[in-house]
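Kindly review this record before class:
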Amino acid sequence: MIDCDVHNGWDSARVLLPYLDRSFRDYLDRGELPGGRDSFPHGHRAWLHPEGYMRYDTLPPSGGAPATDYAYMCEQLLDRYDLDYAILLGEEGMEVSTLANPYYASALARAHNDWVLDTWAPLDDRLRISITVAPQDPEGAAAEIRRVGGHPSVSQVVVTSGSQRPYGDPFFHPMWEAASEMRLPIAAHLGGQGGVNANPTGTGPPTFYWETHAMLCETGMGHLASVLAHGVFERYPHTRLVLVECGVAWLPAVLWRLDADYTALRKETPWLKRLPSEYAHEFVRVTTQPLERPRNPDALWTALDDIGGRDMLMFASDYPHWDFDDPFTTRFPAEWRDAVLDGNARALYRLPAARPREEAAGAGA
């Protein structure tokens, strides 16, 4: 089993200071962190979670923040569920996308990547790293992808779904070009609202956290449509788009609409050679958490089956967040389980073939 959404964090953003150039170190040390504020700088969050973003039981017994203690993560996740791999996406690092200063944002992304590769990557061969980039600085993002994208522990690039414009826009093409060159997917993880980024819904900012969380899937829809319409995969065929934590039930309806409108209006985008749904089936992957639960469970799988969803879904737990999905209790059709829990992610991230269980158990972590 492969978990495609695992968050690893820090107790204080001060861990980045040794990795920053002097001028940007002062930004963080003197401008952001004084007064006991050790969290990562990001745009102000307008929606406060009434219970907190983390599972309370993920606080390590040794102290510190959730997902900062590798041994406790093994106990609660990697070993408990016998994971072959966990795709790490960081925590607050992704929110560099909210910052107005693109040079500072890229400097923080570089520092974050160096810290993760120094401190987390050596711990366990099961950990695979997502490198953070600042999409508001696409040339800087491209340089960062080329700088560390060849590291053997790196599996993808990560940005937030909160952005200044949809990710198919030619503004972002340097980022896609570098990802294709390095044979890396780009994952858009839900979040990054605030700061310089656009409103998360088409009608403006919602009022309540639960309302907002339910509607943030709009950002995934917008990025998907944009990437398909702009022909990103015709231009850069060696990359992929991964939508993380954006939900899945909306995917068939959006692709049906895109196919219908493209068929009627295809002269707008003559660079496309196939239906949007055909590009999506080959080049887009979607993680399962949060997995919608209709009253008739079969309804979800019937709709997803129409677009070839068995080949597109990848399991994610979202550890250690409040809406964690337990792989032992999350239900999939029997004929989908191997692909969703393992095969799709293993192919996307070009991971070694799974070992027989008895061999893996004898080898240890």
The first strand starts at residue 2 and ends at 6. The domain at 2-9+39-351 is CATH 3.20.20.140 (TIM Barrel).
